[in-house]
Design a protein that fits this description.
Length: about 350
């Protein structure tokens, strides 16, 4: 039987293409990587050691990196198994049962399992982290619904968001970003309702994990997502995005944003942001009276009433359809006029003023 190319990097084919054969020096490297892993070294350290000692990588770059090491350590092709794959939405997905003994085994099951065990322990202890925390569960998975470009994780201080790569490279597309935390919560809420019980279990594990165990749980979830999500398209600005030309600033969290995710070969499902937790205080102050009593403009009074009702300043800006910077400017003016110094002081003052007013009327 003729065998096809595209085999693991440590194997070659005989001239008549009927048998796989080891590339001896590469087979030795694979074995060494498993032994290093079994001895407790993490993927990052293994890659660093191989590069430092001049061991050539199997890829075109000739270098080793953490993800190549992790992929190899997880690959059952090292045991001789062949897993048929097919493309679902342009992504390779496992298909059918693995064929045992298809390749010559480069290591045995005992070493494979020892490496798996050590890898999990290594991740759990945090030694495998080395500044490579799993911040973005969707790395390499999400694409832009408009330009089909990859969606990147963009960190600007504490503001972590997903942004279309074309936007980051200033090549156009729609200049919106999606706050990462908001995206992840929305995605996981949708995924929890999926028919994939393994996925649901992994999400619950992450939610229940202690701080120390979170990293490992997130890795397990990310690896599973990589296997099951065949497409994840993000529409940062909704289905009918407004025209906005570069170099406009990148606006945050368009209210019409959504994503479409496909698990395996099922139909795509759409996900929308979760509604923000309601902090409604139930207190409604008359804006006209507020304006008179505290000597505020109608816009300033509306802003104070909105804060008293429980909205944050950002939600207030959205509610009053003003830019957040304008809302901040109004707030500063209101602080000056009312001689208050914080939002809490201000809402307290507004409420006590009304209570006094009501008392004097009764
Ligand atoms: Zn785009």
């Amino acid at each position: 039987m003729k065998k096809h190319m595209g085999c693991p990097g440590w194997l070659g084919l005989t001239d008549d293409r009927t048998e796989f054969i080891f590339i001896p020096e590469r087979a030795a490297i694979v074995k060494r990587i498993f032994e290093m892993s079994a001895s407790g070294l993490g993927g990052y350290t293994i890659a660093k050691k191989l590069n430092a000692s001049g061991v050539p990588g199997f890829g075109s770059s000739g270098r080793w990196d953490q993800s190549t090491i992790h992929n190899m350590l997880r690959s059952r092709a090292t045991l001789g198994e062949y897993q048929k794959k097919r493309k679902v939405n342009g992504k390779e997905m496992p298909f059918g049962k693995p064929v045992l003994g298809y390749y010559p085994a480069v290591i045995d099951e005992v070493l494979f399992q020892a490496a798996q065990q050590a890898r999990v322990e290594n991740l759990a202890s945090g030694r495998g982290r080395k500044g490579n925390d799993i911040a973005n569960l969707f790395d390499g998975m999400a694409t832009c619904r408009y330009c089909k470009g990859p969606v990147r994780f963009h960190s600007n201080g504490n503001a972590k968001s997903l942004v279309c790569s074309s936007v980051l490279e200033r090549q156009g597309c729609h200049r919106y970003r999606w706050t990462y935390r908001d995206f992840e919560l929305s995605f996981l809420a949708l995924a929890r309702g999926s028919a994939d019980s393994k996925l649901v279990e992994l999400i619950e594990n992450v939610e229940a994990a202690s701080e120390a165990g979170k990293y490992e749980r997130r890795i397990e979830l990310m690896l599973h997502l990589r296997e099951t999500v065949s497409s994840l398209r993000v529409a940062m600005a909704g289905s009918e995005p407004p025209m906005n030309s570069p170099p406009a600033p990148i606006a945050r969290d368009n209210p019409k944003r959504f994503f479409e995710v496909t698990f395996g070969d099922s139909s795509p499902v759409a996900g929308v942001p979760l509604p923000p937790p309601s902090a409604d205080t139930g207190i409604r102050l008359d804006e006209g009276l507020l304006s008179k009593r505290l000597n505020l403009s109608p816009r300033q009074a509306a802003l104070v009433a909105s804060l008293v009702a429980g909205r944050s300043l950002a939600q207030t800006a959205e509610h009053l359809e003003m830019a957040l910077s304008t809302a901040r400017w109004h707030l500063r003016t209101v602080f000056e006029r009312t001689k208050t110094h914080s939002q809490d002081d201000l809402t307290d003052l507004a409420c006590t003023t009304f209570k006094r007013l009501k008392a004097s009327q009764e």
